[in-house]
TrEMBL record:
<keyword id="KW-1134">Transmembrane beta strand</keyword>
<dbReference type="GO" id="GO:0044718">
    <property type="term" value="P:siderophore transmembrane transport"/>
</dbReference>
<dbReference type="GO" id="GO:0015344">
    <property type="term" value="F:siderophore uptake transmembrane transporter activity"/>
</dbReference>
<protein>
    <submittedName>
        <fullName>Iron complex outermembrane receptor protein</fullName>
    </submittedName>
</protein>
<keyword id="KW-0732">Signal</keyword>
<keyword id="KW-0812">Transmembrane</keyword>
<dbReference type="Pfam" id="PF00593">
    <property type="entry name" value="TonB_dep_Rec_b-barrel"/>
</dbReference>
<dbReference type="InterPro" id="IPR039426">
    <property type="entry name" value="TonB-dep_rcpt-like"/>
</dbReference>
<keyword id="KW-0675">Receptor</keyword>
<keyword id="KW-0998">Cell outer membrane</keyword>
<keyword id="KW-0472">Membrane</keyword>
<comment type="similarity">
    <text>Belongs to the TonB-dependent receptor family.</text>
</comment>
<dbReference type="InterPro" id="IPR036942">
    <property type="entry name" value="Beta-barrel_TonB_sf"/>
</dbReference>
<feature type="signal peptide">
    <location>
        <begin position="1"/>
        <end position="27"/>
    </location>
</feature>
<dbReference type="GO" id="GO:0009279">
    <property type="term" value="C:cell outer membrane"/>
</dbReference>
<keyword id="KW-0798">TonB box</keyword>
<dbReference type="InterPro" id="IPR037066">
    <property type="entry name" value="Plug_dom_sf"/>
</dbReference>
Amino acid sequence: MAVRARPSLLSLPLLTLAATLPQVAHAQQAEPRKDADASEEIIVTAARTVLPPNALPLTIDVIDKQRLDQQIAISGSVTDAVANLTPSFSPTRQKLSGAGETLRGRSPLYAINGIPQSTPMRDGSRDGFTIDGFFVDRVELIYGSNALQGIGGTGGIVNQVTVGAPKTEGISGRVLLQGTADNDFRSDGIGGKAAGLVQWKSGRFDASFGAAYEKRGVFYDGDGRRVGLNLTQGETQDSTTVSLFSRIGYQLGDTGRIDLIASRFELKGGGNYVAVPGNRATGLPTSAIRGDAPGKPAASRTESVALTYTDTALGGGNFVGQIFFNRTHDRFGGEIAPIATFQDPRLDPAEKLFDQSENRSRKLGAKLSYERAVPGFEALTATLGFDALIDKTEQRLIATGRVWVPPSDFRSLAPFAQANLKLFGGKLRLAGGARYENVAIRIDDYHTLASTTYVAPNKATYGGVAVAGGKPKFEDLLFNGGVIVEPVAGIRAYASYAEGFTVPDVGRITRAIKVPGVDLDHYLDISPIVSNNREIGVEVKRGPLDGSVTYFWSSSDKGQLLIARASGIFDVQRQRVEIQGLEVNLGVKLPVPGLKASIGYAHLNGRYDADAVPDGKVDTDLDGTNISPDRINLAADYASGPFSARVQTQFYLSRRFDGKARAIDDANPLHPQKLFMNDFGGYVLTDAYVRYQTRLGGLSLSVTNLFDKMYIDYSSDTRLPNDNTVFYAGRGRTFTLGWDYRF
């Protein structure tokens, strides 16, 4: 089940370095708190603190293994599972790319055991697909901007905590077999998955090894047509995935432990279909026919390794130290028609040059934190830490070897301190701290592509511009603070303020420079994004009720917006952005034993300064590329003995976009035109899931889009409103039959 917890500013900074800490070790210092069923103590490892969730004044949701597996069976991925359960999270695009998917109107930071999966210097938007959900024990969601996690996560954190060490001596494990089919059981719509995990424990030593393989067929919409493919950005349909996982641990004494965790995830497109453009005017969505996709199919590969040492009684406190290495290789597919941006008359005067790009990124990082009660003043808990990150990213064109985004080096050094003061026996708490962020970016001299300046109708413009590289540096002291009042156990209110930090998509910015003579040492568009998050919340967890109401508002003076050119390539604009929202969640145990009902609601309003000469006043709605629709979630769960079931409905509410936003017109760059923003009509989707546990394992059947609703997904309906090639329908009714067994 999903456990709602409210962590704090103290928690948020300290990413999941404690993810590998044994639960018994946490319990030595944590003030116990039970979940809604009073069965287990809640430990939020993303908080990197042993303080209980009710000591922290921000919003956190925990999706446990049972609910996570249920949602993955319904929708197919961890990202979809999070989106289904979180009203303020955008509906997913059902593609490999998560571009435009936001949490509270800003980009979330995806992490695995605290290791960032994003590539901030050139966001390829593949960070939601870096590990198979079979190896994820739970997902911790941290809402809102906060610099304490380091770079990224201005909308929040989606931290995937991998399976823990085995608790019993000897061999144990789990296997999964799963099959998926569209509503009419077409042969090319059939998919399947097989996964296994073997764990072994002997005394102080333990080891876990696992593998998962998945083959996905094509998707069909509610009218029985193939869903169109985005060959460039990548697809999850018509693809194969191989995911490997390993964990080796050793207990050092009674309180110390060392863990080595490694994973590898690779998704490859099949390249067996090509897109057939739709027609927005008639409502006909993009479809697909069999055919050989040009070039190499889109693919994504992520490899990660982390070494963590924890000691829960080092000098009377809790120490966590981690070093990690992560690298990604994201290949983008090619289009049948030559991409105008890639043309260069020097290479092909006929301007029919075929090319495609790939991102390569490497990260090396370290995180240290030490937490303990202050001697002689036990009501005050203090945390000191230091984080370091080095990231190197580039984007190249693989057919011709040209550089689209020059190699970019990012370095961050960040000491931080947090404090949490308990007063009046815990009825009042004060939390706060600061993080000093010191960032350096290095980019050598380079030339933009020949056609970067702009592309006139049917003709590529000759000649890129020379850009002088540089080593811009940025530093800032980012604060957070909050207060929690809990007059009665289970009823509390909190208010908080936190500043978040990230860099814009530097790759999009540097590759799109049009003016000769730019010097990156003085180019303000690559300066960091500093956002803030103010939040007020009330929470009730008593008896059959589990509810919360949260109001938040955030702003950034130089935020990041994705604005589409007429060619379909997205550029970055730096403008003031303001977002505010209301989140309401209520769960209740009904009089029928085993029956629960829940409702969630999110309202988001985002605007930005669209003036050609910014005046600091927001005047235009954020469009569907940059903010999610309002939503209502309804769900009912039932469990009795070996049987369990869930029905959930998501109401994506209609939305109108107003303002004076301006498109970047490639054909006439000196006279920008008003951007036409599609209004969103809304749609309703219902899913169902049943499971029966036998002595030989559990059998489950899930149905996505139970009523076979025909709809255009939110992203397609609101992005690129003049492009008929990206007018995608959502997936129609889909069945998934699964069997899993634990031993």
